Each structure stands twice: as C-alpha cells, then as structure tokens.
Prior knowledge:
Blueprint: E1 2-6, H1 11-20, E2 27-32, E3 47-49, H2 55-61, E4 67-70, H3 81-101, E5 106-112, H4 117-123, H5 148-166, E6 172-178, H6 191-198, H7 207-219, H8 223-235, E7 241-246, H9 258-264
Parallel strand pairs: 1-2, 1-4, 2-3, 4-5, 5-6, 6-7
Helix pairs in contact: 1-8, 2-3, 3-5, 6-7
Amino acid sequence: MNVLLTGAYGRCGTAIIDHLHDDSAYEFTYLDRDEPDTSGEYGDHETVVADVGDARAVRDAATDQDAMIHLAGYPFTDGTWDDVHQPNIIGMLNALEAAREHELETVVFASSNHVMGMYEIENAPDLYYGTDVPFRLSHEDPVRPDSYYGVSKSFGEDLCRYYVENYEYPKRAHAIRICVVRWAEYDHPYGDAERDVNRGDYERDSDEYEEVVARTKGMWQSRRDFAHMIDRCLQSDEESFEIFSGVSDNDRRWYSIENARETIGYEPQDNGEEWDSPPE
C-alpha cells in the first residue's frame, strides 16, 4: 500500500515512522514543511517539502497513492482563527480534494481531544484522580470544542464525513481524536511532568507535578499504540466515516476505545496505571 504521510516529522508522524516504516505492507511518502535534519535519525528519508496550504503541492504528492495519513496542521490551543485557518481549514480541504482527485481509498485524519475539550475543562482537576471515571466520551457524544484549534479539528471531521458520503473517493475516512502522544524521550505517563520540570516550570515533588501526572495517566497514548491504531485504520475495509479516541487502555481514561476495538480491531498494549514512577 502506498501511503502519503503529511506532517511526517512531528510527534505523531515520527511515531508512525518508528513503528511502521519498515513494515513491508507499506511504502511511505513523507511530506513536511521542512527537510529532516540530515544528521538525525530521520535524515535519510526522502521527503516532499511542501505546505498543506498549497493545493497543487498536495495534489502532486497524492499521485499514485492508495491512502493518506493527514497529520499536518497548526497544533496549539491558544491560536487565533487566523492561525488555524490556512493550515487546518484550507489544508484539510486540500488533502481531501487530493484524495478525491487521485482516488485514494483511505484517509486517516489527526483530529484532537480538543474537539471535546469542554468536558475536561468543566470537570478538572477531579476528573484526573482515581480510576472510577464519571464518563467515557465516545463518537456518539456532542462535540464541545475548547478553542479555535478544537473548532478546526471538528470542521475536519465534518469535512471527512462529507467527502465519504458525497463522493466516490475516499472510500473511508477515520478521524483519530488524539489525546497525548509525545516524543520518544517522554513516551510515558510521567512524560509531560518531567518535560515541565526539565524546563523549570515547577519541582518534581510539587502539587503541579502530581496533577500533570494524574491527567497524563488518563490521556496517554503510547507511540506504539498510536502506530497500531494507524495500522488498523489503514487495514480496514469499512467504507464509512468513523471517529476513534486516540488513547491507550488507561484505567482512568475518560475517552472510550470501544468503537475502535469493535470497528478496526484496536488492541492497545499500554496502560498508564502500570507506571508508578518515571523511567530511570
């Protein structure tokens, strides 16, 4: 299967490269705004350097592809509408138009938990503590974006559904509401808190540290579980639009993974509750 991966060298893109690049089932084309660092571990990958806001560039990159994993976009919740408009709105349209024109069977879209972010805001920080969670959000619950970023991802989901239901291609689109996927260095439930300590935001034994750990134990999706979910999406033969929660099998998660289990056979290996300290 020929797969175009946009936003290839970000946190989520590199998780896919780390776990699926050598899989004989796939032949990847990597697209990113920047060339990879030639001295780094991804420096030897051939890369299409382009911005997803450039419709022609995206169409050209989609030539002879079977599927697209669309990760590229503006990633911050404090962004303005101007920040998200070109990369997340126009870029989404360009990706789906390229998939339609070149008859790609599958689109996997990096949506976000921030499509549902107001549920967390209203229930934090109590939501973070303990495994008796008050709810498990699923694709059936009303969207409640917490930012322009969240709104842009909700738009992306709607546009995916529109294309699947109104055009011959793509045959299927899967939106993953990514929770917490981190760089390999911080790929564990203590990762966000350790990152914050390393940049001097607070001390390791502080209340702030404990709260961040508690949240991440509910929201973490390990890099291998994320790549596994991507693989299951690419291998699916369902001709439909689906929404999945991008999270590991954490005891205290407040996002449901039942739809992903039942629809694409998602079987995560990791659980944030299995960690009681950061790695040595």
